Amino acid sequence: MAEMKPNSVAVFNSNDIYPVSADSTLPFAQHRDIFYLSGVDQEESVLLLFPDAPYEHQREMLFLRETNDHIAVWEGEKLTKERAFQVSGIRTVYWLQDFHKILNEMMTYADTMYINTNEHYRATVETETREARFVKWWKERYPAHNVAKSNPILQRLRSVKESEEIDLIQHACDITEKGFRRLLGFVKPNVTEYEIEAELAHEFIRNRSKGFAYTPIIASGNNANVLHYIENNQQCKEGDLILLDVAAEYANYSSDMTRTIPVSGRFTDRQKAVYNAVLKVKNEATKMLTPGTLWKQYHVEVGKIMTSELLGLGLIDKADVQNENPEWPAYKKYFMHGTSHHLGLDTHDYGLLHEPMKANMVFTVEPGIYIPAEKFGIRLEDNVVVQEKGEPFNLMRNIPLEADEIETLMNE
């Protein structure tokens, strides 16, 4: 609210419950913005903010679907007005049926409306969301008002984490650790990727996670060279590696881990050499995540470190580097994705990449080397918190990472 223009209103909508077919629906997942601002994790909820409203009770308003005994029996208990106040701290709570009437009154006082468009750099949205429908309706209904964007404010707010948020991400990482340690005693030749997924799901859910923070990647052998391999239906062969990009959510906050382990419990010399090269890039890249760092320049520097490691592995030579296309450097043949992204309520969380990094931003660090000709790929990923001074704090510091430690745990 402190960042809003004078005499302006902002509205935030919950997500829809999305249909599948017949009477089937996907599980409800709350829009992260209204959840971040209010703590309300319920469909058909609306948050209205009006810092300069004429009356104090109009400055924060929550609108909820009216609950009753019938809904409680068929769908489970929904928020009452009293419970909504306990959850959100917002005293003014109305039923949703009053929203248009009250909004109309607010519009007579206000000059500007903040609409909440999705401007995330990875977003490709083909479905018309509840938020988008509201924006379309509002612009038609109130054409004389100025329009402003909520998203830049939210990008800056959400990218810098409160201590409570870091604690929740840490808890998600701790649940992920339990799942990974469970796997180290479970994986052996001929196990299937989906059996590994089932072990993780079991461990995550029994620790009060709702499950995976994102669709799990369990990629054995050459499957690891497909960056978003999610079929998870192949048998894991002796001598192969398994790339595991898997992590738990907790209280709607994501963790994001990648580990690469040997099916047989031992790396070959070549596998270990590539593994240690990826680990070195990860460790060096992590040190650069400090206040003031620019995301684009950071990736240029990581590319230089990766180039050095690929030269050492014999995957590229000096001529490849000398003749490289600056738009697609030589190292990109074996490491074609970015090294870091923001992490939080979304796995690819909010953050304006053209602005310098700040303390308490949470980033992944996830370099990889992918070698289809040798039928394996290796990626390693941790989640770290940028500090005021010095190196970032690793939220996954307790999850086994060194090749020797993984071998020891797999052979106990």
UniProtKB/TrEMBL annotation:
Pfam families assigned to the protein according to its UniProt record, in alphabetical order: AMP_N, Peptidase_M24
InterPro entries: Aminopep_P_N, Creatin/AminoP/Spt16_N, Creatinase/aminopeptidase-like, Pept_M24, X-Pro_dipept-like
Reaction(s) catalysed by this chain's protein: Release of any N-terminal amino acid, including proline, that is linked to proline, even from a dipeptide or tripeptide
GO molecular function annotation: aminopeptidase activity
Keywords: Aminopeptidase, Hydrolase, Manganese, Metal-binding, Protease
Cofactor: Mn(2+)
CDD domains xrefs: Prolidase
Any coiled-coil regions, as ranges: none
Annotated Aminopeptidase P N-terminal domain residues: 1-124
SUPFAM superfamilies associated with the record: Creatinase/aminopeptidase, Creatinase/prolidase N-terminal domain
Gene3D superfamilies: Creatinase/methionine aminopeptidase superfamily, Creatinase/prolidase N-terminal domain
EC number(s) given by UniProt: 3.4.11.9
Entry similarity comment: Belongs to the peptidase M24B family.
Classification via PANTHER family: XAA-PRO AMINOPEPTIDASE 3
Name the UniProt record assigns to this protein: Xaa-Pro aminopeptidase
